[in-house]
Design a protein that fits this description.
binds ligand G3I, about 30% helix, about 25% strand, alpha/beta, globular, six-stranded mixed beta sheet
């Protein structure tokens, strides 16, 4: 039984005797008995013990602030650029892309072992003037060109893209009146199809606010759209629920129902921009616990690091105060995450490509590494792409032929004659967030 890893362009063959546990015992550092999870002391580590991420919005302009970067570096495993990947930032003139600010956030995240959510490709807000001046087919083409240009630049590097942001209206739940909407109802599905073609490895999300309350008209409209997309094969992998809670828009008691019902459509759900006016600890804990109880709720992102970094700093809605000290809400969230250990893990990560599915399952764990099983369905001749969150690395495989790209931290795997169940050993270097996988026919 042979597993092989390609380092760069060079094939490295490594004999793995009867699976990774044997391989660890024979060829690599000492592997002890798998151990139970202990309480973790950071948000990211605690979430990772349930197979989830815990993220924050990051501003490029604050990366020179050592207090900011110390907290962000220590606590979070997922990063969303707060403004740097928006349309006005990335394509300030038609066809002229500027990835400087987005790359600063991306590079900081990658260098610090974090994954990145791309935010956002198409939004009615934050549009440059040239785009606002377009309409009809010219605007449609510009929308697709924008998706192609930005996603090509970040191809293979993004965990999930908010392909479309906030396309529904408050109140009635109809589509929001925007220049995009005026190009025709089908602009959203065209955006998702273009996004899938541009980067098949990225999860593709629809992201919105005021869709936390299951009974609201807006939630129902988004749900109906996602259900329709799933039934017609429009490529959508996830729904981002922003969760900006205030006294006027409070945390609803049926939030868990909303998460569960979206997940039942076959998509992941993610809490993407969490902040709560006044940061009440109990509410923060409830939101996080809601996510932990839904297997396909794959992670939570808070919308900023300290209260003073918040887009609504007067509401002091975050987990760290202006001095960078942990607030009571921080402790409540950490406790809620640790209470879930060894609670439910996110369900199998499906293939965004849809043609075949690669399913991850937990294997043995050691202090410095862990095993994942992979099962592929839907194809006999498949190509699975596995993106590993830095600084974690795949150090062994079994029952599969694999090529490892150290630049992108991505492994490409093909059948090696041992069937469709195989596995990897990941040395986590402190980052226990599971890799993402996608599957396509060879
Ligand atoms: O950086 C410039 C600065 O140079 C300039 O002097 C100043 C004067 O206006 O503006 C600064 O840019 C501001 C930017 O935030 C950075 O602070 C923009 O004006 C301001 O519009 C922008 O606001 C952002 C807002 O989206 C609009 O894009 C917020 O930071 C950001 O938190 C907020 O995030 C949104 C999500 O993307 C979508 N969901 C809602 C959420 C909250 O509104």
């Amino acid at each position: 039984m042979t597993g092989r890893l390609l380092a760069g362009s060079r094939v490295v063959r490594r004999t793995l005797v009867l699976g990774a546990v044997a391989a660890l015992a024979t060829g690599l550092a000492v592997a002890g008995t798998p151990r139970a999870n202990a309480a973790a002391d950071t948000l990211g580590a605690a979430a990772a013990q349930t197979g989830r991420y815990f993220g924050t919005a990051i501003s490029a302009s604050k990366l020179g602030d050592p207090v900011y970067t110390a907290i962000a570096g220590r606590e979070f495993t997922m990063v969303t650029p707060e403004n740097e990947m928006k349309l006005d930032a990335t394509e300030p003139r038609q066809g002229v892309f500027n990835f400087g600010p987005g790359d600063r956030v991306y590079d900081w995240a990658a260098q610090n072992g974090k994954q990145v959510r791309g935010h956002t490709l198409l939004w009615h807000s934050g549009q440059p003037q040239w785009l606002q001046n377009l309409s009809g087919s010219a605007l449609r083409q510009a929308m697709i060109d924008h998706i192609d240009g930005v996603m090509a630049h970040y191809k293979g590097k993004i965990y999930a893209w908010d392909v479309v942001n906030e396309a529904f209206a408050d109140g009635t739940g109809g589509r929001r009146n925007s220049n995009f909407q005026r190009t025709g109802d089908d602009w959203i599905e065209h955006a998702f199809r273009a996004a899938r073609a541009a980067d098949p490895a990225a999860k593709l999300c629809y992201n919105d606010y005021n869709i936390e309350n299951w009974t609201s008209a807006k939630t129902q409209s988004v749900y109906t759209m996602v259900k329709d997309f799933r039934s017609r094969g429009v490529p959508i992998d996830c729904v981002g629920i922003q969760a900006h809670f205030t006294s006027g828009n409070p945390y609803p008691g049926d939030f868990r129902t909303t998460l569960r019902n979206f997940a039942a459509l076959g998509v992941d759900v993610q809490i993407t921009e969490l902040d709560i006016q006044g940061a009440p600890p109990a509410t923060y804990a409830d939101v996080v616990t809601d996510c932990l109880t839904v297997p396909r709720c794959t992670g939570v992102t808070v919308w900023g690091v300290r209260d003073t970094d918040s887009w609504r700093s007067g509401d002091t809605p975050l987990l760290f105060d202006g001095d960078g000290d942990k607030k009571p809400a921080y402790t409540a969230v950490l406790d809620a995450l640790n209470a879930a250990v060894p609670g439910p893990s996110p369900s199998p990560t499906p293939s965004p490509a849809g043609s075949c599915t690669a399913t991850l399952s937990a294997g043995a764990k050691w202090p410095d590494r862990y095993n994942l099983g992979v099962t592929v369905t839907g194809s006999d001749d498949w190509i699975v792409t596995m993106t590993v969150p830095r600084p974690a690395k795949i150090i062994a495989t079994w029952n599969v032929s694999a090529r490892w790209n150290p630049t992108t931290n991505v492994m490409t795997a093909r059948p090696d004659g041992h069937g469709d169940s195989w596995g990897v050993t990941i040395k986590h270097h402190g980052n226990r967030t599971w890799p993402t996988v996608s599957c396509r026919h060879a």
